[in-house]
Structures are given as structure tokens and as C-alpha cells.
Design goal:
Length: 265
């Protein structure tokens, strides 16, 4: 699912709202019991660029949680997947929520966007859903790579890399799901189209030798790529279904393994 990025008024307004949210960020207290590395980053304060990246990441993670929630709770094809594929999708939902709360604990502000729009047939059609899911994971990977490069401290850069690695897992595992889609749901799905608009074979699912940067040099490019998902006018312009919207509902995550907790190990 390729999203064309344009420099229209909707995009400028969206970027403005996101920037305004970032500009008002204060370093707040954490409810997560953060590991020393992130605590040190908080103690040292955040630069303007740090705040902008964190707010963009929160928008992305809120969208990710909403997407995985929609799949697990509302997608008919989900119920006919193998148990391990269902487990991946459930675990990804927990992980994305953990990422969101971690970023919010550092920024001190929630995502400025909590209502999302999707292309037509999202959650009802397996091919559409997997195309969108892989597209979003493509975007998240590239966005966190911007953080790896542009965060002002090594603590933030390291954490950005650690989250990016999980988003890469999610992209690969989303591609693993394709062949397991039941015939009743249009499966098996052998090709999935990501953010670059190219239908790629799911064999092998781990088809990247290196993560794709999408050519993004600054975090505003990542924010712009998400515009149709959060702005109704931009959604309509992109051909999304604006008759339906989906709310982000935060929850307390439970990571799949104790080894997945935020630690230095």
C-alpha cells in the first residue's frame, strides 16, 4: 500500500500539529521503572529534535497498536490462522504498546493523534490488511533509523535501534502470515505490497539484507507518510475509507517473555 506524499495544506497542518505537540514537551516522570540508560537520557533533558522524534514515534506506535488491535479483534482471517501466527500478532500488539508507553514516559506527552483511518477493506480483506501492515512496519523501521542517526544522546540512539529491531521482526513475521491465510480468506497470499508500492514475494519472508531507509533524511518525512492515517482530509485524498475511524485505546502491556523487558541485556 503505497502512500503518495504531497506538500499540500493538509500535510502542512498535520506537521504543524505534530510539531506543536513536540514543542510543548516536558521531561516527565516515568511509570515504567526505566532502565538506567533511559533514565540518564531523561535526566540530561531533551533537545528540540529529540522531542520531535519522540512525538513522531508515539504517533506511529499508537497507530501500530490500533492496527494490531483491529486485526486481532475484528479481522475474520485472523481466526483461521495457525496458532503461532495468531500468537505473533497478539505479541506484536503488546510490544507496540510497550514502545508507546516508554516513549510517552520520556516525552511527558501523549500522541497528539488517537483516531486513525485506513484504506477501504482494511481488516475485512486479508491482502489489504497485510499490505497496510507491512507498509506501516516499513515506515516505522525507516523512522527509527532517523532516530538512530539524529537523537542527541547515545542512550536515545541505542533505544531507537532496539525498537527498530523489533519493528523489523514484525515486518518479517507479517510476511510469514501471508501463506497461512486460509483459502476462504483469499489465501494463500504469496505477494505483499509494502510502502514502496512493489508487490514482493513472501518467499523468503526475511528478504532484506539491510533495512530500508526509504531515503528519509529527517523525521518530518516519516510524519508526512503517516498523514493519511491520522488526518481525515488527507485520508480522503489518498482514497482511504473516511466513513470509519478507529480509536487508539492504551492498555497495560504484558511482554511475551521476561527477557523482553527494558533492560541492558
Amino acid at each position: 500500500m503505497y502512500v503518495k506524499q504531497e506538500e499540500g495544506t493538509d500535510r502542512r497542518q498535520f506537521l504543524g500539529r505534530s510539531a506543536a505537540a513536540g514543542a510543548g514537551v516536558l521531561v516527565g516522570g516515568s511509570a515504567l521503572g526505566l532502565a538506567p540508560s533511559f533514565a540518564a537520557a531523561k535526566a540530561g533533558g531533551l533537545s528540540k529534535g529529540d522531542r520531535e522524534i519522540l512525538i513522531a514515534a508515539e504517533i506511529a506506535e499508537a497507530l501500530a497498536v490500533t492496527t494490531y488491535t483491529g486485526i486481532v479483534r475484528h479481522a475474520p482471517f485472523f481466526r483461521r490462522l495457525a496458532a503461532d501466527d495468531q500468537g505473533y500478532l497478539r505479541a506484536a500488539r503488546q510490544e507496540e504498546m510497550s514502545h508507546y508507553l516508554l516513549e510517552k514516559s520520556v516525552s511527558g506527552k501523549p500522541s497528539p493523534f488517537t483516531v486513525f483511518y485506513y484504506p477501504h477493506h482494511m481488516f475485512r480483506d486479508a491482502q489489504t490488511t497485510l499490505n497496510v501492515l507491512v507498509s506501516l512496519e516499513d515506515a516505522f523501521i525507516a523512522a527509527y533509523l532517523v532516530g538512530v542517526r539524529d537523537f542527541s544522546t547515545r542512550f536515545l540512539r541505542e533505544t531507537s535501534a532496539r525498537i527498530m529491531g523489533i519493528e523489523s521482526d514484525h515486518r518479517t513475521l507479517a510476511r510469514v502470515v501471508g501463506p497461512g491465510v486460509a483459502k476462504k480468506d483469499g489465501g494463500p497470499i504469496e505477494k505483499i505490497t509494502g510502502i514502496q508500492g512493489v508487490a514482493e514475494s513472501v518467499d523468503p519472508p526475511n528478504n532484506n539484507g539491510y533495512e530500508r531507509t526509504l531515503g528519509w533524511k529527517k523525521i518530518s518525512q516519516a510524519v508526512a507518510a503517516l498523514t493519511p492515517f491520522v488526518d481525515k482530509k488527507a485520508a480522503a485524498k489518498a482514497g482511504f475509507d473516511t466513513s470509519k475511524h478507529h480509536h487508539f485505546h492504551p492498555f497495560k502491556p504484558h511482554l511475551p517473555s521476561p527477557l523482553g523487558s527494558f533492560s541492558g541485556h
